[in-house]
Structures are given as C-alpha cells and as structure tokens.
Amino acid sequence: MKELLKVKHLHKKFGENVVLNDIDLVVNKGEVVVVIGPSGCGKSTFLRCLNGLEKVQGGVVTVDGLPVEPDKKSIIKLRQKIGMVFQSYELFPHLSVIDNLILAPTKVQKRNKEEVIREAIELLEKVNLVEKKDFFARQLSGGQKQRVAIVRALLMHPDILLFDEVTAALDPEMVHEVLQTMLNLAKSGSTMIIVTHEMNFARAIADRILFFDKGEIVEQTDDVKAFFEKPKTKRAQRFLSTFS
Ligand code: ADP
Ligand code: MG
C-alpha cells in the first residue's frame, strides 16, 4: 500500500490559541478519510495546513514525498499533487463554465488547450453538466457550481483531494447531487480527505473516520460501522448524539 500523505507532529497556533496539537496521520493511496468534529475544533485549519495554505508552528507534512511548505517554490508542484474544494466554490462568476475549468490547467500547468477542453467535457458529462459548459458560472445553481468546482479540482490531476464542508452552503435539494459526485469519485479509487457534517454520507463513503475535538484526533478507526453505532470515547458519543 502506498503512503500518499504523511503528517507528523503537526502543531498550529493562531496567536496563543492552539488549534492543532500534535497531529499524526498517514493516508494511503485510494483511501477515503472522513474528518468529523464540533465546529471550531480545527478541521478547516487542518485541511489548510495539508495544502500549504497555513504557516505551521511545528511538524512535517509530505504529499507523495514532497514537503508542504507554504513559502517555497514547491507550492506550484504541490498544487498538482493536492487539490481542494471549499464550501464557497470560488468560481469566476463572469467566466463561462469551460473557461473556469481550463484556466489553471492551461495557465499554470501549461497544458494543451484542446486537450484540456476535451477532458473538461468528459468530466462535465460524468457530473451531468455538459449542457452548461458555455453558461456563465453565475447562472448556475449552488449544486451545479459545486460540481463544477469539483471538476475543476479533478482537472489538475491531483493525487489527493481535500473537501471542506462542500455541501454546507447548499439548499437541501442540491446536497444529494454533490454527495453523489463524491461517492462516484470514491468508487473510482480517488484518494480523499473529506470534512463533513453529513453523518449518513460519512458513514457511506468513509474507509476511515477521524473524530477531532479541540485540535486533537480523539478517535480514529476504520471500523466505520462500529464507530457510528457506538463510538469508544465519551466525546464522540456526545458529538454523535447531537445528530439523532
Ligand atoms: P472548524 O473547521 O473545525 O470549524 P477551524 O479550523 O475553522 O475549525 O477553526 C479552529 C480554530 O481556529 C477556531 O478557534 C478559530 O476561531 C481559529 N481560527 C481559524 N482561522 C483563524 C484565523 N485565520 N485567525 C485566527 N484564528 C483562526
Ligand atoms: Mg470548518
């Protein structure tokens, strides 16, 4: 099994506020890791640290052997290894769907435009959005925008994809289509780390659950079914009980 992402003794503070306290994690290729935990426990900061978007106070993160260091030139290389989808899709509203999609692969990765367009259309077909390819991003619904944002991340061919509460800002009827897209990715063998408050989805998609609280991994298991039936720690029990 190939170890794709490694986190060792990660420490992160904002001022005096310790947000991540000595986090260790290894994610294997093809694994789907779901991160759950109360609001403010450090989930988003954790993903941002994995992706080189935050300065850290200690520890090492490597992706496929490449150290994650926010200030270094390696960040461009890193962007090709690790992709992220956020709660707010961050598409350019005044650009068409297809132009949003091809921007980074052609400008940053310097790939052939025709080839990228071809691949973008294939991916849009998979998420049932090919008929929207020439629409402005601002003309799409939230669920459609979020699926475009996922396609945009996939087009960079990352080794690992990070998702931070990607359905949190969507109307309930649009949540399903985005979760279904992620389930399909999981089936096709993508390596993903997903932060979500959708517990049924977490249960369905996770190979492993990480339960975070106050900046620490309090419980971690690949017996996902057992975790949702009866978590071992009191803190996870209390957290899950707020969903039922
Ligand atoms: P979660 O995603 O689990 O809700 P976050 O990672 O967003 O949690 O936040 C963890 C803690 O870090 C919170 O106490 C939050 O206030 C703090 N925090 C997050 N981002 C910043 C920032 N840019 N500056 C200062 N504090 C921050
Ligand atoms: Mg968050």
Automatic annotation (TrEMBL):
<dbReference type="GO" id="GO:0016887">
    <property type="term" value="F:ATP hydrolysis activity"/>
</dbReference>
<dbReference type="GO" id="GO:0005524">
    <property type="term" value="F:ATP binding"/>
</dbReference>
<comment type="similarity">
    <text>Belongs to the ABC transporter superfamily.</text>
</comment>
<dbReference type="Pfam" id="PF00005">
    <property type="entry name" value="ABC_tran"/>
</dbReference>
<keyword id="KW-0067">ATP-binding</keyword>
<dbReference type="InterPro" id="IPR030679">
    <property type="entry name" value="ABC_ATPase_HisP-typ"/>
</dbReference>
<dbReference type="InterPro" id="IPR050086">
    <property type="entry name" value="MetN_ABC_transporter-like"/>
</dbReference>
<dbReference type="InterPro" id="IPR017871">
    <property type="entry name" value="ABC_transporter-like_CS"/>
</dbReference>
<feature type="domain" description="ABC transporter">
    <location>
        <begin position="5"/>
        <end position="239"/>
    </location>
</feature>
<dbReference type="InterPro" id="IPR003439">
    <property type="entry name" value="ABC_transporter-like_ATP-bd"/>
</dbReference>
<protein>
    <submittedName>
        <fullName>Polar amino acid transport system ATP-binding protein</fullName>
    </submittedName>
</protein>
<keyword id="KW-0813">Transport</keyword>
<keyword id="KW-0547">Nucleotide-binding</keyword>
<dbReference type="InterPro" id="IPR027417">
    <property type="entry name" value="P-loop_NTPase"/>
</dbReference>
<dbReference type="InterPro" id="IPR003593">
    <property type="entry name" value="AAA+_ATPase"/>
</dbReference>
<dbReference type="GO" id="GO:0015424">
    <property type="term" value="F:ABC-type amino acid transporter activity"/>
</dbReference>
